[in-house]
Amino acid sequence: MITVFGSINMDLIATTERLPKPGETVAGNGFATAAGGKGANQALAARRAGRYVHMAGAVGKDAFAAEALALLDDAGTDLSLIKHVDGPTGTALILVGGDGENMIAVVPGANGKVTPADAETAIGRMNEGDILMLQLEVPAAAVERALSAARAKGVTSILNLAPLIPDAPRLGRLADIVIANETEFERLAGQEGMDAAAREAALVRLHVETGQTLIVTLGGDGVIAIRDGAISRAQGLKIEPVDTVGAGDTFCGYFAASLDDGLDFVSALRRAAVAGSLACLKAGAQPSIPLSEEVADRI
After folding, report:
1. Which helix (H) or strand (E) holds 256?
2. Dihedral angle at the C-alpha atoms of 142, 144, 149, 152, nearest 10 degrees?
3. Start and end of every Carbohydrate kinase PfkB domain (predicted)?
4. Is 253 annotated as a binding residue?
5. How many angstroms separate the first and last alpha carbons of the chain?
6. Using an 8 Å Cβ cutoff, are 63 and 87 in contact?
7. Is residue 288 annotated as involved in ligand binding?
8. pLDDT, tens only, 46-97
9. pLDDT tens digits for 215-256?
10. DSSP secondary structure code for residue 214 in this structure
């Protein structure tokens, strides 16, 4: 079983020919709303990959709450660990340029009211050998409690080191498996401006220090990882991206689901990389997450 402990948002998405520079206003050419939040995105990805998933987090008592949970509910995700709190549901304001790149501002809302006690409740429902997936869009104290409780119970923890908050390097050391993009990994390693050789050297160094499984996503260049002393690589698909929002979350959810399904590590990386590529072919975070059959066909 997979439990995702994290954020639930409504995404407000505007599309433009290009992203604005600081202080600049550009004309938009489209607008849409979509359920999002890194936690909810990863939970839906794991569910669409075919695994049983609990989502733990919080939504507000507003018009966005039901919409933010609709796709998770439709997919059969267990929502019994989600609490409803006073105030707004978390919101993400997203600009998507004509090349598929994006800019995002996240307003925590109810996500900011997730507590260490909520973490204890979520882990209390888990068993040894289950998988816990976390991100950093809920308070650091709650993430830290979840990680420590998971380790005490023999639950495998996967921490996606995003967004890049000040506590990210410290919290990253508490997880069994860490997933980061290039920028996030540089912060974890304490070294900026890495080329490929420096990144691989840093992976080895951190792995020797911590014993953790470390995974770095590289966008169109696939993924590099280290586990049990061995470096692994995997490629996604060669695509023309429409919208990269949610691609990283799709990778994380599919990776967790693949491990939970018993795939070997390299196969799990490959399946997750292909799923992340497919998520770039549609607009929106959750609407773009592919079904397991689509991923299998492309593999």
Report:
1. helix 247-260
2. 180
3. 2-290
4. no
5. 24
6. no
7. yes
8. 999 999 999 999 999 999 999 999 999 999 999 999 999 999 999 989 898 9
9. 999 988 999 999 999 999 999 999 988 878 789 999 999 999
10. E
Residue 19 forms part of a structural domain = no
Is residue 282 part of an annotated ligand binding site? Answer: yes
Q: What's the number of domains the chain is made of?
A: 1
Residue recorded with tokens 């995105």? 41
CA nearest to 285, candidates 90, 9, 5: 9
Residue 217, classed as helix, strand or coil, is strand
**Whether the Cβ atoms of residue 177 and residue 158 lie closer than 8 Å to each other:** yes
- Tokens representing 238 are 């060669």
Helix (H) or strand (E) holding 138: none
**Which amino acid appears at position 101 of this protein?**
E
What number of H helices and E strands is found in the chain? 10, 13
In a domain, 15, yes or no: no
Q: What does the DSSP 8-state code read for residue 109?
A: G
Quick one: tokens of 264?
């070997």
Give the whole-angstrom CA distance, residue 95 versus residue 21: 12
Give the Cβ contact number of residue 38 at 10 Å: 30
Determine the structural domain holding residue 62 and report its residue range: 2-8+38-88+110-297
What is the value of pTM for the model shown? 0.92
Q: What gap in Å lies between CA 247 and CA 280, rounded to an integer?
A: 6
The sign of the torsion formed by the CA atoms of 49, 125, 137, 77 equals positive
What φ, ψ does residue 125 adopt, rounded to 5°? -90, 0
> Does residue 238 lie within any of the structural domains?
yes
Q: What is the CATH number of the domain that holds 218?
A: 3.40.1190.20
Specify the pairing of strand 53-60 against strand 2-5: parallel
11 annotated ligand-binding residue? yes
Instruction: Determine, yes or no, domain membership for 102.
Output: no
pLDDT digits (tens, 9 = 90+) for 145-190: 999 999 999 999 999 999 999 999 999 999 999 999 999 999 999 9
